[in-house]
Amino acid sequence: MYASTLVLALSVTSCNDTKELDKGTLIIQFENLLDGEALKFEGTRYNRDQVDFQIAVLKYYISNVKFLDETGQVIYTEEESYHLLEETASRKDLAIELTELEVQEVSSIEFSIGIDPEKNLSLDNTGDLDPSNEMAWNWDTGYKFLLMEGEIFESEGTRKGMVYHIGGNENYKTIKKEVNTKIKAGTTTTIEIKAEVLSLFDAPHYININEVNVAMGGENASKIAENYANNFFSINTPN
């Protein structure tokens, strides 16, 4: 009886080990750029629209991550998929790690920038959605989907704030990118996603940062949201 129980226990353990080995990990690694180079923060000045500016903080929500096959069918959906990505001069948190994934071919990745309406107006949340992360307005307005703050140095030597807080259900945008990669057993696959800051102000809507140095709602916030839906992200070939 003891021998049978031991054999059964060993069989179950072996089976579990095999299942673990059959799983893989995927890291979605974001990198913030400005004009194609790694974004630098306070102490580094950039020039646009005939003024110098510097950035102090860039934060945005990536949510509802999904994988699709070559036919466009969803083959993986992350549960409770809300990730606050943040970068400052002293802090860099730009990776999403997904573990225990089935071995499979992934043709495309889909994710959203912002918080979906179901969660957006509920601030009784924890983790990356905790209001203490300073990315929430109030119960009526919801979360800031993207926050970028800095300073503009005008030609006459004066300074003014650079404040872009983009939120609102109308500015929740879903993005789909081709990746053509494979989740492999027992290994980690990385997808690198570049986020180009200047694209927030370029297309389809050109925004002069000296004239529109603050956007916290309204038409200009919606224009920035349309820009990040179209041009903010690009994907490198996964390894």
The overall average pLDDT, rounded, is 91
SSE succession: HEEEEEEEEEHEEEEEHE
Low-confidence stretches: none
Termini separation comes to 50 Å
Write down the domain tally.
1
Shape by Cα distribution: globular
Q: Which structural category fits the helices and strands?
A: alpha+beta
Number of helices: 3
Q: In percent, how much strand structure appears in the residues?
A: over 45%
Into which percent range does the helicity of residues fall? 10-25%
Rg on CA atoms, Å: 21 Å
Strand elements, count: 15
Biggest sheet character: 10 strands, mixed
What does this structure look like?
This is Copper-binding protein MbnP-like domain-containing protein. It comes from Marivirga sericea. Helix content is 15%, strand content 46%. The protein is an alpha+beta fold. The protein has one domain. The strands form two sheets. Strands 3, 4, 5, 6, 7, 9, 10, 11, 12 and 14 form a ten-stranded mixed beta sheet that branches. Strands 1, 2, 8, 13 and 15 form a five-stranded mixed beta sheet that branches. It is globular and about 65 Å long. The mean pLDDT is 91.
